[in-house]
């Protein structure tokens, strides 16, 4: 094991260590809440990127997994199951849903999957609004059995974000990840080289869904109250897609940066521009697609290269 | 259920199918020529609805005339959108991630501009015509629906004429079949694409106006119709205008008759279920059933 190869892992571990001790240094509950929310967003952002960024399959419907995970976890906790079991259940339910969506739509190429996800997201919200078991439109409450311990939730969300990050790393350097990249670039060529695009997309979708479902479960346990217009909202699906795109789609750190930016500024933005925030996101999406498809990561990279070359020129001509 | 009820439901489905066809045909043109799934379709439907509404409430212009005015206005809006945004993204013979995201961003912008301008309350266009019913024996035809259906058929006939009798139409059909070959025989692809995008958006806007005469609307109005339009063009095999007609009829029939079996609140799930069935059972669309000749790639 070479140190060079592990320096990224080392830096990542350092970052996690800092985040672990951060709340113990006297951060207020509001700051901890903000970090908690950010970790949840980072998790789903990374999850979306596995399918959308590596595999090139745009989904507008990740709110389905987020919401199903939230409801599954809420139901599990209320029936007395342990938090971790509840989260596993949430991931499992979301994964099942991913097969239901993916099996028909991945059979064909092109926009079918993307549009179908819009439809699924609408349909699931409608159905959940009418299901009496979970309270329908009026929402569902998790019954609190013990005292509220914010730090527990914080560490669970951090652990999940780290897990998502590890999955993203692993996928990116595995054969499976290469298959996804190949599908994104040219599905015919990938298929000729022995990749089974259908299976690879389905697997990536399932993995992304599981992570998203677990994130929904983590959120539900913190919020203790969920309702269909909240967790299944189309705007959640939009947010999940925007984060990795803002950060830099198809990269390792892009979705993390996108999730952090979104997690930290979203509340502020909604509070300041309640009518405008989606308008701002839409314009941002258009600008990114037209001018900086690699997102913030691409922008930083360009600045960094400009700086580096300027320094090199200065060094060469003192 | 009596035979009359059945007949009335059939008529309702047929009248609905006409509107659905107009609504979907714009997406088909844009998809066919540019291989772009126009997600902003939903936004333009909404704008078309408010366009007709504003003309009616502010200037007292009849909604029908408003729909006719929507064609040229949205045609130019569409050409402008193509010039400013769509032209800048790389073209491909497969729908690309970039084009999906670009038009999705445009939809978000349009939808939230709508919220900004008109707020989120529901509006409706009420004319003296709205509640009239034409009685023919035991059957009732709601007048608005008849009128809307007639306009829809007229618009489709006009489009059919343009596609088959003009050079622009021939260029569009050629590009839909094979864009490289079209380029070789001297079609100006950029110009044809721009006009085709304009025509597609013109149909979105006008269809929005027609839908506004039938349903109440809010800035969120387009979403469910976007999915329906997509289901219709998938049923129709994505690139065929005859397929659009068949797809519209199928969706309208299924939606209308599902009321007998399902609570109305589940209606939005129907379009998606139909999409799944279509994808699993008929990957080439309905047209694929009688059109099984091998396609040259």
Overview of this protein structure:
- The complex is a heterodimer of chains A (318) and B (297).
- Chain A is an all-alpha fold and 318 residues long.
- Chain A has one domain (29-264).
- Chain A is 77% helix and 1% strand.
- Chain A has a two-stranded antiparallel ribbon.
- In chain A, helix 2 runs antiparallel to helix 9 and helix 11 packs parallel to helix 14 (295-316).
- Chain B is mostly helical and 297 residues long.
- Helix content of chain B is 71%, strand content 3%.
- A two-stranded antiparallel ribbon of chain B has the order 1-2.
- Chains A and B meet through helix 5, helix 11 and helix 13 of A and helix 4, helix 9 and helix 11 of B.
SSE layout and pairing:
The complex is a heterodimer of chains A (about 325) and B (about 300).
Chain A: H1 3-21, H2 29-54, H3 62-78, H4 83-105, H5 112-130, E1 140-141, H6 150-173, H7 175-185, H8 187-192, H9 197-223, E2 225-226, H10 228-231, H11 234-247, H12 254-272, H13 277-291, H14 295-316
Antiparallel strand pairs in A: 1-2
Helix pairs in contact in A: 2-6, 2-9, 2-11, 2-12, 3-4, 3-9, 3-11, 4-9, 6-7, 6-9, 7-9, 11-12, 11-13, 11-14
Chain B: H1 3-34, H2 41-59, H3 63-84, H4 97-118, E1 133-136, E2 139-142, H5 143-165, H6 167-177, H7 179-184, H8 189-214, H9 222-235, H10 241-258, H11 267-281, H12 287-290
Antiparallel strand pairs in B: 1-2
Q: Approximately what portion of the residues of chain A adopt beta-strand conformation?
A: under 5%
**Apparent shape of chain B:** globular
What is the average of the pLDDT values of chain A? 85
The total strand number of chain A stands at: 2
**Helix and strand element order of chain B:** HHHHEEHHHHHHHH
For the termini of chain B, the CA-CA separation is: 50 Å
Q: Helical region count of chain A? A: 14
Strand/helix succession of chain A: HHHHHEHHHHEHHHHH
Spatial order of the strands forming the largest sheet of chain B = 1-2
Tell me the structural class of chain B: mainly alpha
Tally of strands of chain B: 2
Low-confidence stretches of chain B: 290-297
Biggest sheet of chain A, open or closed, and with what strands and sense?
A: 2 strands, antiparallel
**What is the helix content of chain B?**
over 70%
User: Fraction of residues of chain A in helices?
Assistant: over 70%
Strand residues, percent of chain B: under 5%
- What is the general shape of chain A? globular
Biggest beta sheet attributes of chain B = 2 strands, antiparallel
Class of secondary structure makeup of chain A: mainly alpha
